[in-house]
Amino acid sequence: DQQVKQNSPSLSVQEGRISILNCDYTNSMFDYFLWYKKYPAEGPTFLISISSIKDKNEDGRFTVFLNKSAKHLSLHIVPSQPGDSAVYFCAASGVTGGGNKLTFGTGTQLKVEL
Amino acid sequence: GAGVSQSPSNKVTEKGKDVELRCDPISGHTALYWYRQRLGQGLEFLIYFQGNSAPDKSGLPSDRFSAERTGESVSTLTIQRTQQEDSAVYLCASSPGGGMHYGYTFGSGTRLTVV
Question: A42 at the B interface (CB within 8 A)?
């Protein structure tokens, strides 16, 4: 049962344009959502998070949007840079997730082309 | 150290052998997690330690898998009688506990290959 879904395994965007990565979840008890970025041969690194009491959180070039009624969140990167090329994981936590346990999606490989 | 340290970084083992993976969390982090990522898949939760509470072992795939943590320090993940499907990158992470605002800090992982 995949509770956090990233339906696009890959995305290709031109440098300077906007990258939009999407994530859907099924468990309505999730109350905190995070995005992680992963380069090859490295562990995932925390990028940005959002609480369920908000619908938007912005940090520099990165903005996360949460639509609770649709159980959907998205990560916007603008402008996209070649260094943003990585795998992006969406993750969620909540009461039913067991304390601070995160449930991850399968990831989206972003490629930013020159 | 400043980050989460895992060893070894790579391990090749023969099917049926036991392996032990080590994780040194960030000092002061009360919570420690083990995940694994098999080829082409997402991160799969294995086990979670929080302070002196009983660990959440709900993600361990079989009784061949076990993990221990001494206090709030080092953790070891042991896989007995390894199988080829155990091949994966095993990731350890730690967090200060409490809220999830900053998520976890992951180590670089141990790439386990069972031949």
Answer: yes
CA distance B2 to chain A (A): 14
pLDDT in tens, B26-51: 998 888 999 999 988 889 999 999 88
Residues of A in contact with B54 (CB under 8 A): none
Distance from CA of A111 to the nearest CA of B (A): 17
Quickly count: other Cβ atoms within 10 Å of residue A103's Cβ.
22
pLDDT band at B98 (very low <50, low <70, confident <90, very high): low
- Cα distances (angstroms) measured from residue A114 to each of A15, A17, A66, B106: 5, 11, 30, 30
Closest among A2, A50, A6, A49 to A24, alpha carbons compared: A6
Q: Do A43 and B106 touch (CB under 8 A)?
A: yes
Position A59, amino acid: D
Inter-chain residue contact B4 with A43, CB threshold 8 Å = yes
Contact of A21 with chain B, judged by CB distance below 8 Å, is answered with: no
DSSP secondary structure string for all residues of A34-73: EEEEE-TTS--EEEEEEETT-SEEEETTEEEEEETTTTEE
Instruction: Tell which wins on pLDDT, B102 or A4.
Output: A4
> pLDDT, tens digit, for every residue of B59-70?
999 999 999 998
Query: Is A43 within 8 Å of B109 when comparing Cβ atoms?
Result: yes
Give the count of alpha carbons within 13 A of A111, CB side only.
7
Q: How far apart are alpha carbons B65 and B80 in whole angstroms?
A: 7
